[in-house]
Design brief:
The chain is α/β, with parallel strands linked by helices. The protein has one domain: Glycosidases (TIM Barrel, Alpha-Beta Barrel), CATH 3.20.20. The protein is 45% helix and 17% strand. The protein is built from 13 helices and ten strands. It has an eight-stranded parallel barrel, surrounded by six helices. Strand 3, helix 6 and strand 4 form a beta-alpha-beta unit. The structure holds (3S,4R)-3-hydroxy-2-oxopiperidin-4-yl beta-D-xylopyranoside (XIL). (3S,4R)-3-hydroxy-2-oxopiperidin-4-yl beta-D-xylopyranoside binds next to loops. It holds the Pfam family Glyco_hydro_10. One of its GO terms (biological process) is xylan catabolic process. Its EC number is 3.2.1.8. This is Beta-xylanase.
Length: 337
């Protein structure tokens, strides 16, 4: 009897210890989503960042290396090395790899041309999909097939693919991608598309609903969520938006999260930032179709925020010395509840 009591006491403390020591990525998994970060090539070779990635990430994506300009700077040269390294790193560390992005209006190679005919553009698009997705079949789990296809008013963005092919470039890309790797998850990614009622969010929803109803392969929608701690966001409108995707059977990825604060007077906005992060992690934990939560970088040492939104920064969960911020610990505490 006494032995049994000792055994149960020991078991109780072991379980308690395990759950307290649970790393971020496992805590996220327990809440039903993959946790991840966007990285640069250097990050997967630097012991300091590797440690963070191993602790926090079950999904990983390149910030830039998969974009046309980096991957295929000219027509006849494909720069696979960096991507192969990421795939190898992810395999070793049991992470999913996400591709960002197949088609976008920015960071294209100089030979990508809006004077292509429809036929030429479709051929280039197919070649791009075929070359990448057959090479990484079974190794890259999900793809941002098209990125940022809308203007703020909800009209279609006149990117090179729209100009050369027309509005159906999106469904042509999705169909081709599905044909090449039927197991890959296919997403459309946007910014300012998180709150129901915003013209872009509604345009995205209508597009996805239409695609789904016509049997075009589409698995998910990415919400970039590059947010600003000075702005207040409607939790209700975000939840309603995600819920209508759930009703369609569509997954949602929080795909590029950061929450910037003004550098001057930074302290004053820290709690607003914390509230936004906590709201997003709570939504991701509670809503079953939110499948991943990816921050757009590891630490404030390297982030696109300061040079894109001058005067702001401190947007990520780790500081410039790779130390987790108080907000990180708050999130982890919530995830472990
Ligand atoms: C950004 C990168 O972070 C920068 O390093 C690069 O100079 C420009 O692109 N939305 C996207 C991402 O989909 O690809 C962008 O990444 C950030 C906004």
């Amino acid at each position: 009897m006494k032995n049994q009591i000792h055994f149960f006491i020991a078991l109780f403390f072991t379980v308690l210890l395990c759950s307290c020591g649970k790393s971020f990525k496992y805590a996220a998994k327990d809440n039903g989503f993959y946790s991840g970060m966007a990285v640069t090539v250097g990050d997967i070779f630097n012991p300091e960042t590797i440690k963070i990635l191993q602790n926090d990430c079950s999904i990983i994506v390149y910030e830039n290396s998969m974009k046309w300009a980096n991957l295929r700077p000219n027509k006849n040269f494909w720069n696979w090395n960096d991507i192969d390294s990421l795939v190898e790193f992810a395999e070793k560390n049991n992470m999913r790899v996400k591709w960002h992005t197949l088609f976008w209006h920015q960071q294209n190679s100089p030979f990508v041309s809006s004077s292509w005919t429809r036929e030429q553009a479709i051929q280039m698009m197919n070649e791009h999909i075929e070359t990448i997705m057959s090479r990484y079949k079974g190794k890259i789990a999900e793809y941002d097939v098209v990125n940022e296809m809308f203007n703020e008013d909800g009209s279609m963005r006149q990117n090179i693919w729209y100009k050369t092919i027309g509005a159906d470039y999106i469904e042509l890309a999705l169909k081709k991608a599905h044909q090449v790797d039927p197991d890959a998850k296919l997403l459309l990614n946007e910014f300012n598309n998180e709150e129901k009622g915003h013209p872009k969010a509604d345009a995205m929803y209508n597009l996805v609903k239409n695609l789904k109803e016509r049997g075009i392969p589409i698995d998910g929608v990415g919400m970039q969520l590059h947010l600003d701690a000075r702005i207040s966001y409607s939790e209700d409108a975000i939840r309603q938006n995600i819920q209508r995707y759930e009703d369609l059977g569509i997954a949602v990825s929080f795909s590029e999260v950061d929450v910037r604060i003004p550098i001057e007077n930074s302290k004053a906005y820290e709690s607003a930032q914390e509230n936004i992060y906590l709201m997003l992690y709570k939504i991701a934990s509670e809503m079953p179709n939110v499948t991943s939560f990816i921050t757009w970088g590891i630490s404030d040492k390297h982030s696109w925020v300061p040079y894109t939104f001058p005067g702001t920064g401190n947007a990520l969960l780790y500081d410039e010395d790779f130390k987790p911020k108080p907000v990180y610990n708050e999130i982890l505490k919530e995830l472990k509840k």
